[in-house]
Amino acid sequence: MKILTANRLHDGEAVWFGTNGHWNEALAGAAIAVDDETVTALKRIGAEAFENNQVVDVELIDVELADGQILPKRLRERIRAAGPTNRNDLGKQARPAISRAA
Amino acid sequence: MYRYDEFDRSFVNARVAQFSDQVERRLAGEITEDQFKPLRLMNGVYLQLHAYMLRIAVPYGTLNGRQMRKLAHVARTYDKGYGHFTTRQNIQFNWPALSDIPAILEELASVEMHAIQTSGNCIRNVTADHFAGAAADEVADPRPYAEILRQWSSVHPEFSYLPRKFKIAVTGAGRDRAAIQVHDIGLHLKKDADGRLGFAVYVGGGQGRTPMIAKKIRDFLPEEDLLSYTTAIVRVYNLHGRRDNKFKARIKILVHETGTEELTKQIEAEFAALRDGELKLPDKDIRAIETYFAPPPLTPRPEGDDAVRLARLDSKDFADWLGQNVTTHKHADYAAVTISLKAIGEAPGDATDQQMEAVAALAEQYGFDEIRVSHEQNLVLPHVARADLKAVYDRLVETGLATANSNLISDIIACPGLDYCALANARSIPVAQEISRRFASLERQREIGELKLKISGCINACGHHHVGHIGILGVEKKGSELYQITLGGSGDETSSIGEIVGRGFAPDAITDAVETVVETYLGLRNDPSERFIDAYRRVGPAPFKEALYGREARAA
Ligand code: SF4
């Protein structure tokens, strides 16, 4: 299971490509690829967004579902999705409205 | 302190204009990321996990109140209210928008600061002893030479695309507080028998994947030959350093693979061809640069002795701070003050905008407007009258900057690690915080004595773990964080690389392991005057291995 993530070009904000067809500031609601076909589709979307100068550092990352929530497998990606673990007042975790948005 | 001349000013302004234009074109989609990335790196702009990061140069760690206030302003206006002081004596902001960076650079240029050459395969910010110009044990202030090197190396056409980054450190004292033996070039300023100034030259030190202690290739290089000799070294490196493998590209590998003797021969041959040319430093030029670093007017303040004696009797906290964070100055009425950025449980090296403002105000009121950033991620007021120490201390207490832990176990160096850094394998900051909380008692810390604990979140070793008396390296194993302990490293005039003590520890076990190491040391030291590093050098790793792994090894 994979989702597509990147950083937004103009401000560097970590973003995920969502089922709503947008690059969202929250991981929840990310479009999940489950087979070769959907992985290829996500890859293409990532490449295009990079070409269009919307985002940089595009990456497909491994995730799993835990209680219906998308959870990245690597700690690195979990930290990107939440913010620094030593500062709850920074990053997405400091903006609950964003981090919970679908 | 050095002031920009017309050339410096127009050079920095031109660079700001150039990079602003590049950012604008990137945002408009006129240049690609592949074209832009090397340009942004030349201007100190990285992309990290959560956002861009801007690294700003603090040449040889010296800045004034106005500059510190500007950093506070940048933190408040464009970032999230804090900055991170680094082991390269620089400052990093973790959250700037790319679109704001031109404005930030313009603001910085107005106080003679920039982010040039804080990244990329060029000669980086030259670092120096943070007590330079103040230390009682100093032969001469090393910063004029660091400034000469800065001017020479800034956008040096021959050395802008080296095989890899290149770091130079300078000290002017016998006690090496600049870790010169783990730099690409280390310079130890000293005097020869006739009283002339010159340098012992070390080459090929470094940390990272392949840590090495530098080799001394010259015992005395006259000061006028500084640039010719440095050019000779960097030229030989530029020609022969490996470009085929990033991990083997630093000069330490060239020194190692070529052999010190052969490489020295090549450097000396190059130097012989250069030494009487245009790079020879005229005495009047050196002295002219030196005037910028002339000591402030340290008027006699003999009332300091009584003031300190009384204040000490009055407050144990002040007495503790005095004992730990105040260093002897050249002038008996003055002292150098270390401002700890390692409050218990805080992220090492981080300072809020308010703390920066407070330090700026103290420097202006009590410190001849001078501030230093130390490679140990603290700040220093190098010249404070002893008579003013109590006033300075009281103000530091108000802003949470009076932690009396300089050189103790909670004075931890830690890199940003996986909480911020895109290259990290494991977190550093939470490990530092937990160890700091475990050893929070100042009484216990003082009982343990001098102990340098350093943490890196990956093998790049920005947290200098190789030269920590206790070093901690974060690695990723099967998707989890694991922490390796090294023991016996040191980054002073008796530099050594720490040795891995055994298998790593999980995040919830690393603090216990550190405590076991410390308790083992306390149990075996000859007496309290035998520091951890000295005890380790005497007994070796065996007792520590036994304490950490013995029981379970025997059970297995
Ligand atoms: S040591 Fe590694 S994790 Fe730490 S700042 Fe350097 S590159 Fe990042």
Automatic annotation (TrEMBL), chain A:
It comes from Nitratireductor arenosus. This is DUF2849 domain-containing protein. It comes from the Bacteria. Residues 81-102 are annotated as: Disordered. InterPro entries: DUF2849 (IPR021270).
UniProtKB/TrEMBL annotation, chain B:
SUPFAM superfamilies: Nitrite and sulphite reductase 4Fe-4S domain-like (SSF56014), Nitrite/Sulfite reductase N-terminal domain-like (SSF55124). GO terms for molecular function: 4 iron, 4 sulfur cluster binding; heme binding; metal ion binding; oxidoreductase activity. Residues 52-110, 335-398 form the Nitrite/Sulfite reductase ferredoxin-like domain. Gene3D superfamilies: 3.90.480.20, Sulfite Reductase Hemoprotein, domain 1 (3.30.413.10). Residues 119-271, 411-548 form the Nitrite/sulphite reductase 4Fe-4S domain. InterPro entries: NIR_SIR_4Fe-4S, NiRdtase/SiRdtase_haem-b_fer, Nit/Sulf_reduc_fer-like_dom_sf, NO2/SO3_Rdtase_4Fe4S_dom, NO2/SO3_Rdtase_4Fe4S_sf. Keywords: 4Fe-4S, Heme, Iron, Iron-sulfur, Metal-binding, Oxidoreductase. It comes from the Bacteria. PANTHER family: BLR3264 PROTEIN, FERREDOXIN--NITRITE REDUCTASE, CHLOROPLASTIC. This is Nitrite/sulfite reductase.
